[in-house]
Amino acid sequence: GGGMSVAVADECAKAGLNLPVFSDALVQRFREFIPGAGNMICNPIDAHFMFMNLEMMGRTLNLLSENSGADMFIISLQLDWIYTASGLQAQYLEKIASYIADVGKKNVRGKPLVVAFKQYEDNPDVVRHVVIMRDIFLKEDIPFYEGLTRAISALSRLAGYSEFCMGLESR
Q1: For a pLDDT cut of 90, what percent of the chain falls above it?
Q2: Which tens digit of pLDDT belongs to each residue from 52-77?
Q3: 72, 152 in Cβ contact below 8 A?
Q4: How far apart are CA 45 and CA 34, in angstroms?
Q5: d(CA 85, CA 108)
Q6: Long-range contacts of range 61-65, CB-CB < 8 Å, 24 or more positions apart?
Q7: How far is the C-alpha of 133 from the C-alpha of 31, rounded, in Å?
Q8: Using omega within 30 degrees of 0 as the cis cutoff, is the peptide bond preceding 20 cis?
Q9: Between 141 and 6, the higher pLDDT residue
Q10: Is 19 in a helix, a strand, or coil?
Q11: For residues 5 and 44, is the Cβ–Cβ distance under 8 A?
């Protein structure tokens, strides 16, 4: 994978979260609609262009939920990149949040979904839209974290609690 996907995989491993390896058949299904150039199809998926084509994001979440053995999902939003790629339209951030809160949430089929964001530049227009995005996500019970480390930590704690509860049930 690329630098970002390796860093995320390392953070997940440190937190005790296992990332299932995608089968060759699943990778082939992704390659039907995700171009190879610049897009890593391994876990975690590093394909930022999906934020510019939300239908692809929906298809990706649907395939992952059906076929990958994934128990939970993190969507990482690099807000400065999205803002620039969308032609400096901060409103597009709101569109992404609404899509994830609706279609994205449905496509993960009840599995835990969290959204992490990172903003490097102090752009007031983006900052205003972070608050709007937070409200959209929280209205749909989707946690919204600043930074992947916080999101990964939260899912790690959730996984630990789930394992604890399963241990209680087996007694």
Answers
A1: 43
A2: 889 989 999 999 888 767 888 999 99
A3: no
A4: 11
A5: 26
A6: 61/104, 61/107, 61/108, 62/107, 63/26, 63/29, 63/30, 64/108, 65/107, 65/108, 65/109, 65/111
A7: 30
A8: no
A9: 141
A10: coil
A11: yes
Helix, strand, or coil (residue 73): strand
- In this prediction the pTM is 0.87
Residue 94 has, within 13 A of its CA and on its CB side, a CA count of 12
Q: What is the pLDDT of residues 87-112, one digit of tens each?
A: 878 889 999 999 999 999 998 888 88
Please give the structure tokens belonging to residue 53: 């084509």
Given a contact cutoff of 8 angstroms between Cβ atoms, the answer to whether 117 and 132 are in contact is: no
Query: Is the confidence at residue 39, as pLDDT, over 80?
Result: no
| Amino acid type, 80 | D
In whole angstroms, what separates CA 70 from the centre of its chain?
12
